[in-house]
Amino acid sequence: MSKFKAMLLAGTIAMLPLGAQAYAAPKEAPMAEVVEAPTPTEADDAQGDFDSEAYAEQAKAKMQKEMDEAIALVEKMFDTKSLPPIEPARLALGQKTMSALIPAGSLEKMIDNLYGKMFKTIMGELGGQSDLMLSIKTGVESDKIATLDEATKGKIADLFDPHRKEREDQITKVIKPLISEALTDMEVPMRDGMAKAYARKFSAAQLADLNTFLATPTGSLYASEWMALQADPEVMVAVMKALPPLVTKFMDRGPQIEKDMKELPKEKQLSDFSDKELASLAKLMKVDVKVLKEQRDMWKTDTVETTEALPADAAYDDAATNAAVDAAAEAADAAAYATDAVMDPAEDRSNWSAADLKRVEDLEAAYENASLAAQQAAEEAAANARKKLPD
Questions:
Q1: pLDDT digits (tens, 9 = 90+) for 41-99
Q2: Confidence of residue 350 (pLDDT cuts 50, 70, 90)
């Protein structure tokens, strides 16, 4: 799945009522054809041939294509074409209900409740004063930095960036109106969609009762607050406190889940197909069987090489683990695209100096080595635990 498609689907699912989110995540999505935007080179930059406007337009075109594909996938997931038409009078009642329940600014109010404090906290963490950021900038262990008081940390951060507070304020000044504008644009289609949903769910008499209640002082107050209250700090804290028992239950039942998963028959891969099965598959797909045989042989080669490279006790066949890894990879790709999609030529590595490029790549290599070391340590810890646990 493409990066932007993952972002758009995640956003769609996030905006669903909580009860529907469990059904919204697709198991698999068709891969989007990637239309790469031209990458400016140092020669282009030196000669002044690079057209930044054309670069931006092609990036927008690529993004639009991926958005269209993501929307098509959502429409397929939530097919409404087979639904019967709604009676105009009943739809009008639903629209009146939604005018009360989603007044102008209500969506922004909910998002502000949810992300307002979160945004400020993240800005503080990334603003240079957090233990992690100071550790990265100075090379001093974060445990030692944690012993310093906040005033001292602030002075250290100011040495690196005397204008960081102004920078944070400017980012907030730019981002917040943009979010407000986007949420305002979302309210109209959201109101329209919910009006149709309510018109199908409730009868005309029930909608009339709802509208009568929403016209009262209590109903009016409820209508103005019900959406924002879903992201109220009290609600968010309560939900977060309820998560540890859920995690503990999964941990407690982990051995049984692992056993149950292992007992399930494994899905066949192309490498498992016999020549006869490949012939049947080729006939169904209307392709030359030679193409499938080549793919099968490639699968077999890759499988052998991968198996030889992995430690003997690595549980890479665990379906739950694979699903978690895939989900994490999609989330990482989606987060990366937030920067990639709007990247200006200055962020293209081909335009960096050799010294800057080496410094970044050295840090990335160190991060990768640390990640591999952590993974190896986790595998060794799991192996040690298996020796102690009863069979």
A1: 544 555 555 677 888 888 888 888 888 888 888 888 888 888 888 999 999 999 999 99
A2: confident
Distance of alpha carbon 85 from alpha carbon 196, whole angstroms: 10
Q: Output the CA angle 327-331-336, nearest 5 degrees.
A: 150
Verify that 214 and 108 share a domain, yes or no. Answer: yes
CB 266 within 8 A of CB 317: yes
What's the confidence (pLDDT) of residue 23? Answer: 38
Going from the C-alpha of 365 to that of each of 337, 352, 359, 368, the distances in angstroms are 21, 18, 10, 5
Give the total number of structural domains in the chain: 2
Examine the domain organization and report whether 242 and 271 are in the same domain. Answer: no
Q: Which two tokens stand for residue 313?
A: 């006790």
Q: Is the confidence at residue 26, as pLDDT, over 50?
A: no
One-letter amino acid at 212 equals T
Backbone angles phi, psi at 344, to 5 degrees: -90, 165
Domain annotation covers residue 275: yes
pTM: 0.47
Residues 172 and 208 in one domain: yes
What percent of the chain is predicted at pLDDT more than 90?
12
Whole-number Å distance between alpha carbons of 12 and 391: 44
Cα–Cα dist 41/122, whole Å: 34
Shared domain for 129 and 226, answered yes or no, is yes
Q: Which domain holds residue 290?
A: 267-315
Please say which residue of 204, 222, 252 terminates a domain: 252
